[in-house]
Design brief:
Mean pLDDT: 93
Number of helices: 9
Low-confidence stretches: none
Shape: globular
Helix content: 25-40%
Number of domains: 3
Oligomer: single chain
Structural class: alpha+beta
Distance between the termini: 47 Å
Radius of gyration: 22 Å
Order of helices and strands: HHHHEHEEEEEEHEHEEEHEEEH
Length: 320
């Protein structure tokens, strides 16, 4: 029988993940998830391992899933999927002498510079993960100062070789990092660095996926598959509109203004909306309400800390 990991070992596995994400992971596995502090979180998971309701390997795999899906900004691209294009991926990885892994591994030892954690290549999928260390400036109101806090950032590249859909998932950038423009850290420089790195690894250009049409399709779908209280759009006359539903329990589409918008012939580009996906409208694909913020203007979908791989994949499949 395998030796039960100690409380300290479980703490080391779970230490950097939010209580909400671990609680959500336990619920998806049908296990008790009552916890109100980080210490209680560690004790709960350790107890489940002691009772053989979880194994150490399952905890590690769960932690990997959390760090690769939780609270990510996901940018979408496409590649061509001809045999010659897909062969370029294999050839490029070989030319770059990228060491390939057979399984996902946890992020370890982040530094200010980007580090590849693993790369996996199969006939159907290419997947890679990097980490790096950023600094967040925490506000100390009592002493009227900023406190620098080091935060690891996870970036995941997922390439579906059958559909050609490419995801690059990013943690929110910190206040200070090495991706700068004129000496100033910029989020766009951080995002662009990994897009260019992905193109280098694949040996193929990434074509940005247009999200506006997908957002419009979902917002207009009847019966409603999402609930939404805000919508940002731009019309052909250059008017930028932001509509918000202020009444509790009401949807942005429960209004005469929405109905009038559907009737007019004005060409509109749906730009942004926070969407809550209704599980009953997903044919069993979702077991809970899932939040996503679609920012079509900037080309990404933001997910909350509760999300897992399957939930992200489902939402993206509905938008592209």
């Amino acid at each position: 029988m395998a030796k039960t990991p100690t409380l300290v070992q479980i703490k080391n596995i779970l230490g950097k993940y939010s209580i909400a994400s671990v609680r959500s992971w336990l619920r998806r596995k049908g296990l008790s998830s009552t916890m109100n502090s980080r210490d209680a979180m560690v004790e709960k998971v350790h107890s489940l391992v002691e009772k053989e309701k979880l194994t150490e390997d399952e905890v590690i795999e769960g932690a990997i899933g959390i760090e690769e899906a939780s609270a990510k900004r996901t940018f979408l691209y496409r590649i061509t999927t001809t045999p010659s294009s897909l062969k370029k991926i294999d050839d490029q990885l070989a030319a770059l002498k990228v060491t390939l892994s057979s399984e996902r591994t946890p992020s370890v030892s982040p530094s200010a510079t980007s580090k590849l954690q693993y790369a996996m290549n199969s006939p159907t999928t290419f997947r890679a993960k990097w980490n790096e260390l950023h600094t967040r400036l925490k506000v100390d109101k009592r002493h009227q100062q900023f406190i620098p806090v080091k935060e690891p950032k996870i970036i995941v590249l997922i390439v579906d070789k059958k559909s050609g859909l490419v995801q690059i998932r990013y943690d929110k950038p910190g206040d200070k990092h090495l991706h700068e423009v004129d000496g100033v850290p910029k989020a766009d420089a951080y995002f662009d660095f990994y897009k260019e790195l992905a193109e280098t690894y694949l040996g193929l250009p990434l074509e940005t996926v247009e999200l506006r049409n997908g957002l419009e399709k979902i917002m207009k779908k009847v019966p409603h598959v999402v609930s939404a209280i805000l919508l940002v759009d731009d019309d052909e006359e250059g008017i930028h509109s932001k509509r918000t539903q202020k009444k509790a329990g009401k949807d942005i589409r429960d209004s005469s203004a929405w109905n009038q918008m559907l009737k007019d012939n004005m060409v509109r580009a749906f730009a942004e909306a926070p969407l809550r996906w209704k599980p009953l409208m997903t044919n069993g694909k979702l077991t809970r309400e899932v939040f996503s913020y679609v920012d079509a203007t900037n080309g990404f979908v933001r997910f909350d800390a509760h999300c897992d791989e399957e939930e992200i994949d489902y939402v993206l499949s509905q938008l592209v």
